[in-house]
Specification:
By secondary structure, the chain is of the alpha/beta class. It contains twelve helices and nine strands. It has an eight-stranded parallel barrel, surrounded by seven helices.
């Protein structure tokens, strides 16, 4: 059986386009992914990023879930320090009521932005994350003891429960916590320099079954560019190489075109950033990309791979996801 594939849509804003245009493209990608047999599509919470339009993943989830039929739609993730747990519980109870059995709640422990935006968000200290997560679960289930300050708090709608909770990680620090609490686990290897293997192993070793996850389930997120030829794939990948070089040197801008990337004169620091990005990304033809994805997934012990493809041209981006699905012979439900 082929390795299950999913989509992480960062809702990329490209040079010359707007955030509104990027958001309008989310439905088309989700529908293409659904027809191609992808398992799920997730949206990440980022704030103050000129290249990412998904600052409100719950809103995007609602928009996309209403325009699709089968594919699971979720957050990858909601950054819990930015939110009161009751609000997260209410929003995802509502999503579960609207789209039963199709919603995922991916949660992260970092604010996902810079210090100025953290202050504007009134974010909690990330050290409170375990307490926040326990509060989220307690509010959803209504399991606080009578003497607890939240004992009389009720989440509405109350006739549904929270969707399956996935804990997101990029360093391995959350892996054991996710396993011992019976959660799903997703590792952000699409940008993290930390090898995912130890984290996924720690997750499995600590895993305790839960109602949502009778068995451990680990997702490996990878940055992928797939095209008919190696040359074309490398050309398209120039967009994220230049974007990553800019980010690593303190510049946050809309995604550049591959032509702009090809003409760019890289400084030594930028060239070093590009070399790193080439190590974490998977670029090539369908055959070579499938082989490399399977190699990384097997080495890490992943049950599923979540692909993010930040390609400048929208049609080339859709084509990359389609070629990848064909290479893996995914079958729509």
């Amino acid at each position: 059986m082929a390795l299950p594939l999913s989509v992480l849509d960062l809702v990329p804003i490209t040079t010359g386009s707007t955030a509104s245009e990027a958001l309008a493209r989310t439905v088309q990608l989700a529908q293409v992914a659904e027809r191609a047999g992808y398992e799920r599509v997730w949206y990440a919470e980022h704030h103050g990023m000129p290249s990412i339009a998904s600052s409100a993943p719950e809103v995007v989830i609602t928009h996309v879930a209403g325009a699709t039929e089968r594919i699971r739609v979720g957050s990858g993730g909601v950054m819990l320090p930015n939110h009161a747990p009751l609000l997260v519980a209410e929003r995802f109870h509502t999503l579960e009521a609207l789209f039963p059995g199709r919603i995922d709640l991916g949660i992260g422990r970092a604010p996902g932005t810079d210090p100025a935006h953290i202050r504007a968000l009134r974010s909690f200290d990330a050290e409170q994350f375990p307490h926040q997560l326990a509060e989220l679960a307690g509010l959803s289930r209504g399991t606080f003891p009578e003497d607890h300050p939240f004992a009389t708090v009720r989440v509405t709608p109350g006739d549904v429960s929270l969707p399956p909770i996935w804990l997101l990680g990029s360093s391995g620090a959350s892996a054991e916590f996710a396993g011992s609490n019976g959660l799903g686990y997703a590792f952000a290897a699409h940008f993290s320099p930390t090898p995912p293997d130890p984290a996924l192993r720690a997750y499995r070793e600590a895993f305790t079954p839960s109602e949502a996850f009778p068995e451990p389930h680990a997702i490996l997120a990878l940055a992928v560019v797939c095209a008919e030829t190696e040359e074309e794939a490398r050309h398209l990948a120039g967009t994220m190489e230049l974007a990553w070089a800019r980010i690593r040197t303190g510049r946050f801008e809309a995604l550049p075109s591959p032509e702009e990337a090809a003409a760019h004169d890289y400084s030594p620091a930028e060239a070093q950033a590009v070399a790193f990005y080439r190590q974490v990304s998977v670029v090539g033809t369908p055959e070579t990309v499938r082989a490399e994805i399977e190699r990384r997934a097997e080495r890490a012990g992943a049950d599923e791979v979540m692909v993010t493809s930040n390609i400048y041209d929208p049609e080339a981006r859709l084509r990359s996801y389609t070629l990848l699905a064909e290479a893996f012979e995914t079958v729509p439900a």
